[in-house]
Each structure stands twice: as C-alpha cells, then as structure tokens.
Amino acid sequence: MKKALFTLAMAMIALTMGVQAQESNNYKWVAGGTGSFTYNRSSDAGQLQSDRTATRIEPFVGYNINDRWRVGLTIGMEYTKTKELNTLGSLVTLDPKRTYRIGPYVHYNALTWKRWILFVEAEALFSKSPRYEVMNDNSTPLGGGGMAPAPGAAPTVYDVTSQYFTFTIKPGITYELSEHLNIDFNLNLLGWFVKAGKEKRLDTNAESDIFDTGIMLDMLENNLDQYWRNIAIGLTFKF
Questions:
Q1: pTM
Q2: Which terminal Cβ of the chain has fewer Cβ within 10 Å, N or C?
C-alpha cells in the first residue's frame, strides 16, 4: 500500500528593492513564489516497491489591474527522484526527472472576508523535461496487482524526453499577513485541466502523444496524504 511518510510545504521568497505605497494601499506590482516538497514510500508485504522524492518551486511576478484582477508570468522547476522494484526483485534507482515550466497566468479574487481571500487562477504553462529514465512495461513491479514479464523478457530502463502544454483553472486561499505580504495556499486538488504534448524515446527516436484532460477531484481521495501532495504554500509581496 502506498503511504506518504511526510509532506513539507515550502515557500520561495521573492526579494524586492523597495516598497512604494499607492493610493488607498492599492499596490500595482506583486512578486513571490510557491513551492512544495513530498516524499512517498510504498511497500507490499514488507518489500519496498517504490521510493519517490519530488521538489517543486514556482516563482512569479504580476500586475494588479484592479482589486480583483491580476495578470502575470510564472516560471518553475520540479525535480523528481525515483526508486522502483522491477520484476526480477531488484530495486532500481532511475535517473532523476527535471521539469522546467514557463507561462502566463490570470488571478481573480472571487471573495474577500476580513484578511481572507478566496481566489481562482488560470495558467497556461509550457513544460519541458530533458533526458530522464523510465521503466518499460515488462518492469511492472510484482505484488499489489502487478504482472510478471513475458517469458524471456528482461526488465529494461530507457531514456526519454518530453514537452507539453498545460492549461489549468484552480482555486486557492490567501491570508493577508501585513500590508505588503500575503501567504497563499494553492489548492492543486480541485479544478479543470488539459495537457497535450509529445514524449520521445531517445534510443529509438520513437515519439508518442501526451494528452489528458479532466476535472481534478482529489478531495474525494480516501488517503489523507493525497491532500497534502496537492497543496503548495507560497508568499506574495506587494509593492
């Protein structure tokens, strides 16, 4: 059974050179970032099946059109390191996957109550992952419903690259710590997304399509660790 040992949300702080107050404390520019760190480990009958660590940071800048609407640019990087058990019972450490992202976003403050703000964000990101390793279908881990490889098939690991476009609409919550600083909770567990792109296997140059779309409803997960893996915490500086 897959279990998350811990999830530590971390925020990336964006420094500003000065603070300029606007009329009625309406600051036009913002800068900040969100981030998360997750560690997941799963086992079956005492046998380690997989071990995964993922770190993600996403700094951003934005311009407030008015009290409700903001537009801006997000950049980001995610680093994932994985160990998996292959069909021969060996624990394989795969080369890490690095994913780089960049794209615009639109932020809308839907509801304000005292220091709390419920917001909705739409973002369009281009993502690219240089060379990383994956297991083929013959290396599906045994146990937990896994299947053994066909006779004579040896577990293999091969290199791939990928690039894709993602459009996402999702909610979040902001708390105003001070006149110039907010703390943000991005709820990446509820919303709508579409993902399309290409994945290329480097040894054969074979390409496959990436396409996925749907509604994120991870709030319905039975396992509580599903919630924490999809919540990123960040800071927003207003100036």
A1: 0.76
A2: N
